[in-house]
Structures are given as C-alpha cells and as structure tokens.
Amino acid sequence: ICFRHLIPEMPFRWFAGDREVEREEVLYRSDRQREITIGADELTLKAREAHPDFAPMAYLNGTQDPTAMKWLLTQRIGSKRKIYGYTGPKFAELISSVYHFRTGRYLSYVAPGDTRRGRTTMLLLSLLDPGTRRAARRWLGTLLRNPLRAFETVYMQSIMFIQPVDFMANGEQSMCDGCPDITVHEDELVWSCRLEELKSFGTFLRSVPVEAEHEESAQARAENA
Questions:
Q1: pLDDT-above-90 percentage for the chain
Q2: pTM score of the predicted model
C-alpha cells in the first residue's frame, strides 16, 4: 500500500463542510517532506528489478483519474522452488465471469486452500490465457528435466499494489473506483481508509487549492513582520 500523508508542501487548504481545518487537526499528517506521489507504476518497476517478467493482469481505476491503477493485481504461479509465470488479463476475465455465473456474486478474496490449486488451474486455462500458457510451458519443461517435480505443489500467489487517494491539481481527490474495502458508517457506504475523517469531523475533508494571491499576501505579511 503506497504511503499517503498531508505534508507542508501540499498547495491546499482543508475544509470540513464550510469550516476550515488546520493541518494540526488532521491525524495523518507530517511536518517534514515525505514522498506521497508513489503509485502502482513505480511499484511495478521496483518489482521488475528482482523479477523482470513481473506482469500485472487487472486493475481498478480512480474516480477522478480513470488512467490511475489504484488496485493493481498480479497473479503468479509457482512452487516453493521456482516461479513459473504470471497469468494474463484473460485469466482475470474468465475467473471473474465463471465465479459470477456460478454464484451470482463477484470474486474478491479466495480461501487460502484455493491457492494450492495452481497446477489444475494452470492446465485448464492455459489454452485460453497466453500468460498462463507460458507458465504451463515452463512447468512442463521443469518436469522434463526433473520428473520428481511432479510431486511438488504448484501454488497461485496474488500480489496487490494499492495506490490510495491522489490529489488532483484542482483539489479533487481521486479515490478507488468500486473500492473492495468499502465499509459501513452510520448506514452509509464509505471509504474505510478515510473513516478517521468522518469520526473526527463528521464529513470527508475537501482540499481546496491555495490561490496565488493568498500565498503572496502571506509572504508579504511574513516579510513585514
């Protein structure tokens, strides 16, 4: 989960309704410079430093920025000894569609025991998903070199990068569209990551850009003082 905090360099004023909120009133803040713009793109590049073929397969976009990958999901297949490969977008589409057709619900988190079905899932979907097919070929190549590997459990492992609130230049806050971690507060669905705002101020905080003339006035007053 990428880090987010209010920092002094942010060019915004904060409001709860019509009341301006001082930074000191906000729980998640810092008085020093912190990096708060790291996103899923940077995390993917960092993962590829260790695993060059690291390949995400699905994402949720942002409410204000539809190009932002707010929840970026990667699914890899491997044993305790070796990573065989990464499933592709078609894998995510097929699994989600079949689950919804069978249950009438949408797939979010699976039972831990399901992660041990990597071999069966890999072989069944390798004909339909190119990423899974590459993993299956690597697994078969491993068996040819060492048939005893057939007795190893093949797992599926999910890796999720979460990019929290992003602040737009106009002050809008881009949240996760269709957030899976939504929660209930006073009979309303709200973002769980910002629940502290509701508890402290009764509403979500608005970020309003600081106008240039206000900055100049503040600087002039400081110089005169």
A1: 81
A2: 0.86
